[in-house]
User: Fold this.
Amino acid sequence: MKNIILTGIKPTGTPHIGNYFGAIKPALELVNNENNICYFFIADYHALTTVETREELKAHTLEVASTWLACGLDPNKVVFYKQSDIKETFELSTILTNVTPKGLMNRAHAYKAKCEQNSISQTDIDDGVNMGLYNYPILMAADILLFNTNLVPVGLDQKQHIEIARDICTYFNNKFKKCLTMPDGLITENVATILGLDGRKMSKSYNNIIPLFCTENELKKIIMRIVTDSSLPSEPKGTDNTIFNLYKLFATKEQTEAFKQKLARGIGWGEAKNDLFELINSYIKPMREKYNYYMTNPQIVNNILQDGANKARQISKETIKRVRTAIGVE
Ligand code: ADP
Ligand code: TRP
Assistant:
């Protein structure tokens, strides 16, 4: 039996090094296993809960798609598409709404967090909450259940969403004919949280990211901004710092060991940052060239996504037909 693997990334910002090591690279490693059939998609309708303008959504969609392709996604091996091209998603989402208890949505963390924030600032409990945010987990369940998915590789932050998708699957299968496949999360708990320029988790929301793709000059400038302590160049340095943690991600075992020793002997942070820049730049350079190629040829990217959507629809149409029969709509 083959594993059906599916994951989505929201086009809400420029992909960064945390996204690469936390989500993109682990997902691409699954593609090389012959037992896996992979569906990777751009969750553009999920991004609508936060993205403000059409320009932003278009730009981020192209950026995210180009990033996947530049990082090695082979569209002949992965069904790669945009969520918005698969209309069956939205039909299934509407159907699933009717087997989902409202209480389950009240407990979903993104909505709950927003309500808690409102409560602290003593504004109306639902201030700034749109129904996209409220229904977010149902749409995500539809993404997953539409493709008979067995495994969903995601970061720890998505664990609750997978549990909700499993609950919704059970509610549907119990109420109607058992025709949806129960998915499991493949939670990458062991992937370390990549730290950003200020030592906190690297995240778009903290404005502390190292973009995966920017020019060499920009990359250098950003790396020079990493916050370090005030130790003198001659003082020995350990491994509990952002520079070393980032270095380790890109380096071979031997390179890591050599860098560790160099730090222990005592070097200035400026030199250490320079070493880090050289290493990251050499790792990223070939991917950056591909990225720039796709970014300047959006039509090629669109064609790839359209081909992917055509393949994906072969499955989504079958599922929706089964579901419609199950609920009595034929
Ligand atoms: P951001 O926090 O920048 O908004 P997203 O929430 O869009 O990033 O994350 C997309 C994917 O990248 C998720 O699977 C998430 O687990 C992963 N990811 C994001 N930031 C990091 C990080 N600092 N370290 C490891 N993985 C990360
Ligand atoms: N909610 C996910 C995130 O914020 C993105 C996503 C949407 C997704 N649909 C999905 C992930 C289906 C896995 C499967 O990162």
About this structure: The chain has a mean pLDDT of 95. Residues 298-327 form the longest helix (30 residues).
